[in-house]
Specification:
D-Maltodextrin-Binding Protein, domain 2; six-stranded mixed β-sheet; 11 helices; 45% helix; 18% strand
């Protein structure tokens, strides 16, 4: 038996399909959107996501629901979104840990942080802050810490929110640039790491400024420096580490990405909504109160930003011989 379809029929069907694609994009969104945060509730990334999600949802005309899918330094939530339908209804809060540092540390991720996602927009830059338990590490400045580490090689330990996190690699970069040695103690998230730092089980941490700053203000921890190139307006009395260690920078960031293959029209709508939310005066003011620097960029700019940050941490991984394998 042979089958034949008139050429005119094929043309009509193809034209109908072609017209339906932009129509879908124009109608987006038609229902609720899921924003996956690949870390536990209450952390800096989660707080930032919740600040912008409601406003972006109002702009898009549909609610944006936060889903926390934590584990494996963000890899579980990231994989979930990478495998989701490319329709704009499942988004990921990408971070410096998930999209730049972790792929530099792990070569076995079941997705690629560039090719598996469509970048929408950066939302905020989050500086890390180096804090110590003053009862464990008797220093009050970066210079004193470097001297202490050199006289106590390998005897000081640092906590992180997980292997391959931005918090982990900030300390590794510090070790590289100072020629010092510390022992890494990894936790499943920032909260348990901070709890053990406060209890004295570990000595120091490079954590997101909004997370540790309240403990510094209460006198429980001592801040030695912020990991941005300049001081933070939230803590202007705390020097930038770069003032003592020129060029040192280890900031985190949050942004919005969708699964690869999502329509550029849909991605642009997402970019506009979340970018505008981050820079809305009341949200931007709240970000600054928390120590975040609000930001936005185009999808193409954000993709290049991710590429550049990933390349930086790949260099650190090579030089420090860091690998999960």
């Amino acid at each position: 038996m042979s089958w034949s379809v008139p050429l005119r029929t094929i043309v009509v069907v193809w034209a109908a399909v072609a017209c339906a694609i932009p129509s879908f994009a124009q109608d987006y969104p038609a229902h609720q959107i899921e924003l996956v945060v690949p870390f536990p509730a209450g952390g800096g990334a989660d707080v930032g996501a919740r600040l912008v999600a409601q406003i972006a949802g109002e702009t898009l005309g549909q609610p944006i629901v936060i889903q926390n899918k934590a584990g494996a330094t963000g890899a579980i939530g990231s994989e979930y979104v990478a495998r989701a339908a490319a329709d704009g209804y499942t988004l990921l809060l990408a971070t410096g840990s998930t999209h730049a540092v972790l792929p530099a540390y792990r070569g076995d991720l079941p997705y690629d942080t560039v090719t598996s996602f469509a970048a929408a927009t950066l939302v905020a830059i989050i500086p890390n802050m180096l804090v110590v338990n003053p009862k464990k590490v008797p220093v009050a400045s970066i210079a004193e810490l470097i001297a202490y580490l050199k006289t106590h090689p390998g005897q000081v330990n640092f906590a992180s929110s997980g292997p391959g996190s931005s918090i982990h690699f900030a300390a590794e970069l510090f070790k590289l640039m100072t020629g010092t040695q510390m022992t890494h103690v990894a936790y499943r998230g920032s909260a348990p790491a901070l709890n053990d730092l406060l209890a004295g089980s570990v000595d120091l941490i490079f954590d997101n400024l909004p997370v540790v700053w309240p403990q510094v203000q209460q006198g429980n921890l001592r801040a030695l420096g912020v990991a941005s190139l300049t001081r933070s307006p939230l803590a202007p009395e705390v020097p930038a580490i770069a003032e003592s260690l020129p060029g040192f920078e280890a900031v985190s960031w949050i942004g919005i990405v969708a699964p690869a293959g999502t329509s550029p029209t849909v991605v642009e709508k997402i970019s506009q909504a979340f970018g505008a939310a981050a820079l809305r005066p009341d949200i931007a003011a709240r970000f600054r109160e928390l120590g975040f620097t609000p930001a936005r960029n185009t999808p193409a700019e954000f993709m290049q930003f991710i590429r550049d940050d990933r390349a930086k941490w790949q260099r650190v991984a090579r030089e420090a011989k860091l690998s999960a394998q």
